[in-house]
Amino acid sequence: MCLATPMKIERIVDGRRAIVSEGNVQVEVDVSLLKDPRPGDHVIIHAGYAIETLTLAEAEERLALFRKIAELSGETSGETGAPQ
Amino acid sequence: MSDESQLARSLVSEIESVTARIGRTVRLMEVCGTHTVELRKQGIQSLLPRRVTLVSGPGCPVCVTPSGYIDNAMQLVSEGRAQVATFGDLMKVPGASGRTLSSLAGTGRVRLVYSPRELVEIARGSGLPVVFLAVGFETTVPTIVSALLEARDRGVDNLFLYTAFKTVPPALRFLLSNPEHGIDGFLLPGHVSVIIGADAYAFLERAGGRPGVITGFEGLDMLLGILGLLRQIERGESSVQNAYPRAVRAEGNPRALELIARTLETRSDTWRGLGPIPGAALGLQSWLAESDAEKEFDIPPAEDREPPGCLCSRVIAGMSTPPQCALFGTRCTPDDPVGPCMVSSEGTCSAYFRYGGAR
Question: Which of B137, B146, B256 has its CB closest to that of A2?
C-alpha cells in the first residue's frame, strides 16, 4: 500500500498539478505536497501524489556507499579466504 | 557480471561474515508490507544466512484494520445511506459475517478508487453522500486529507472520511513494550519515513530500544538495510540509520507534516490483532467534524473479531509465521481468503503463499 514509484516531472500544470513521466508513460499527479516542484525533478509518486523530491547528489551518494561496502567486503573475504 | 549483481554478492558475503561473528540467530522485523512482498519477490530472503530470520510486522494497513470496520462500511452501503469509495485491497476482506464489500458491488454503491485525487469528482457526480474508507499509514494519510480539503475548498460537501489511519512509531513502541517480543532490529519503512522523517524514530535509541535502519525497496537497498542492522547488533548498538537518504530527510516532508498537524489528532484506535495502541491512530480534528463519517452517520466503534482458526492476529504481531496456521494454503488462499493477511497483496500470508518464505 505504501508502494511508490520514482518519476520525472515533465511540466507543471498549475500550483497543484504536474505531468510526470517514466519511460513512455505520462500521467498527471498532484504536487501540492512538494515545496518547489520543477520540471526535470525526479519525484516519488504514491497514490497519485508526489510525496518527495529525489536529488541526484543523494543517488550518487548511495552508489558511493555501496562501492565502499563492496570494497570493505572484498577485504574481509580476502582475509578469510572466502571465494570471490 | 553486472555492477549491481557484483555489489549484491559483496553485500551478501559481508552479511554472512557479520552473522558468523554474532554467533546466534537474529530476528529482524520488516515493518512495512511493501518490504514483506519485495524481500520475498526479489528472493532476498533466500540469499541470507540461516541464522538471519525475517519476521513481518504490522505494516499492512488493510491487515491491521479491525473486521468490524468492514462490517460498518457494508452497513452504510446496504442501508443505502451512502456510496462507499475504497482502495481495492479492502474490497475482498471478509467482515465478521464473512461477507465482503465486493459482494455489494451490484448495489452500485461501492466505488473502487486508485487515487484519492478521484474523490472530488466522484463526490461531485454522486447524488448520495460519498464515504471514503480512509485506511493507511503516514505515506497515504496526507494524500487523503489533501483530497478532502480540496473537495471542501471547491464547495463539494458530500465527501466524508471514515478514518482508520494508523501511525508507525507508536506501534513499534508498543511491540517493544512486550517483554517477549524477541526482535533484534527493525527494517524501517522507506515511504512512511519519507513523510515522518528519520528523527521520528529517535525513541529506538533510548533504553530498551533496538537498532533501526530506514530502508528503500530495491534489492541492494534491502541488503544494505539488513547489513546495517547486523553491524549494529554485532556492536551492541541501538541507533537509527538512514539507508534511503535519496528519499528520506531527517525532518521528513514538512508540507505533509504541517497538513497532518492542521487536520488530524492522535487517537488510540484498535489495531487488528494488537488491540488498542496508545496514540497509534489519527482521526479528524473537530473543525472537520462535518466531513467525519463516524459523526455524520453515527458509526459505532469497529470491533475486532477474528474468523475461527485464523492466526492473522499473531502473524501481524510477528509471533507466528503463516505456515503455522492450519488454514494457510488449504482453506485460506488469495483466491478465497479467510483473514486479512491473505487478502491484501501486502499481507504476510499472501506474500508467503505467492513467493514462499517459510524457513
Answer: B137
Helix (H, G, I), strand (E, B) or coil at B279: coil
Cβ pair B147, B120 in contact under 8 A: yes
- Chain A residues in contact with B255 by the CB 8 A cut-off are 32-35
Any CB–CB contact under 8 A between A5 and chain B?
Answer: no
Taking contacts as CB-CB distances below 8 angstroms, the residues of chain B near A69 are 7, 10-11, 14, 224, 227
B154 at A interface, C-beta within 8 A: no
CB interface of A with B, residues 55-74, below 8 Å: 55, 58-59, 61-62, 65-67, 69-70, 72-74
Q: What residues does each domain of chain A span? A: 5-79
Helix (H/G/I), strand (E/B), else coil: B137? coil
Establish if B126 touches chain A: CB-CB under 8 angstroms. Answer: no
Cell matching residue B225: 538495510
Average pLDDT over residues B303-318: 86
What are the distances in angstroms from CA B283 to CA B164, B167, B289, B291?
Answer: 8, 11, 10, 11
DSSP characters over B47-85 = HS-TTEEEEE-S--TTTTS-HHHHHHHHHHHHTTS-EEE
Domains of chain B listed by start with CATH number? 1-312 (3.40.50.11750), 313-354 (no CATH)
Written out in words, the top-level CATH class of the domain with range A5-79 is: mainly beta
Contacts made by residues A64-69, CB under 8 angstroms, sequence distance 24+ = A65/B224, A66/B7, A66/B11, A66/B220, A66/B224, A67/B7, A69/B7, A69/B10, A69/B11, A69/B14, A69/B224, A69/B227
Q: Does the pLDDT of residue B315 top 70, yes or no? A: yes
DSSP for residue B116:
G
- At A71, phi and psi to the nearest 5? -65, -45
- Residues facing B112 on adjacent strands: B86
Q: Which of B121, B80, B59, B44 minimizes the C-alpha distance to B340? A: B59
User: CA of A80 to nearest chain B CA: how many angstroms apart?
Assistant: 9
pLDDT beyond 80 at A56: no
Task: Kindly determine whether residue A48 and residue B256, on different chains, have CB atoms separated by under 8 Å.
Answer: no
Question: How far apart are the CA of B253 and the nearest CA of chain A, in angstroms?
Answer: 7
CA pair distance B146, A30, nearest whole angstrom: 10
β pairing state of A49-54 and A17-22: unpaired
Mean pLDDT lowest for which of A53-57, B169-173, B179-183, B297-301? A53-57
